[in-house]
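Q: For a teaching handout, I want to show students what a protein-ligand complex looks like in token form. Below are the inputs, and the small molecule is iron/sulfur cluster. Please produce the holo structure.
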Amino acid sequence: MDRDIRNLRGMVLRHEKGSMEDGNGMRTVIYMKGCPLHCWWCSTPESHRFEPEVAYSAARCVGCGRCVAECPAGALSLNEEHKIVRDRSKCTSCFHCVEVCPFSAHKIYGEEKTVQEIVDLIAQDEVLYFFTGGGVTFGGGECLGQADFVAEVMRICRNRGINTCMETTVAYPWEEVEKVLPYVDVMYIDMKVMDRELHNKYVGGSIDRIQENIKRIDQSEYPVKIRIRVPTLSSVNGNQKNMKALADFCRGMKKLEYIELLPYHRLGKIKYDEIGIEYKLPDEKTPSEEAMAELANFILAQGTGIPVLVSGVRYP
Ligand code: SF4
Ligand code: SF4
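A: Here is the structure, written as tokens, with iron/sulfur cluster included.
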């Protein structure tokens, strides 16, 4: 029985070791593939699809045309700059182009891993977790889309004394959330946009489900810590109306440690080019430090007593 569970497979995007930003201490971050939302500012668009997908780096490509000739679906062509254009409607994800390119200009995002393989990977840094209070953090994509897999890895980690965190939007039915709750120490939960119409446009999914799940986690019997994260964009949610609604929603939550405002950045833009999808916020700027500080102080002024974090600075 146990052996079967350890052979359970998950679709993993990638992992990152030695992270100091995704929970306490030093951490191994496991990014899972697949997300039901479509945030316009997402910095990991290569995580959106649940299945593996092919990406292309123009910087590596010398324009030899070999992949164009070998693509069985006729999905590739060279443009005037001798760079590859992929017709996503024709691509069957056979990954033949990855094999034939001599310069590794095509690559695959996503690989199946077993529970045991991921546990072994995490356990390589067990000593570092012990000395720093770190552990494993699951991110994505939306890792709750593979809740059975994530719950099982976290269960084994917990049994070994490894701290467990997840970064989530809780945009899944409660039955999926419930699977991980017994095994997770800290949940970083995104509350991106409070206005229903804006949420539909920029985020997608059900705002009611997300908010209901957060309240249910807060009222649950499990001693999980909640940290709310808000990717903050001047043109979408970086305003007093959104932050007041956020503060009102969070007021009285028992498990909430703090609200963290994350200034928008466009580091993920290159990934949109790699997988050939449109970046919908070409003109959005990173909010200034002063603007972020103003928003933090505005949330504090709502009198909830909940601390606010911005770029490592804690208010008050
Ligand atoms: S993955 Fe296959 S079908 Fe898609 S572009 Fe590459 S070779 Fe062609
Ligand atoms: S085979 Fe590689 S280097 Fe040649 S055109 Fe295709 S992606 Fe570019």
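A: Two things your students might notice: Residues 54, 71, 73, 75-76, 86, 91-97 surround iron/sulfur cluster (ligand 1) (CB under 6 Å). Residues 17 and 28 are 4 Å apart (CA to CA).
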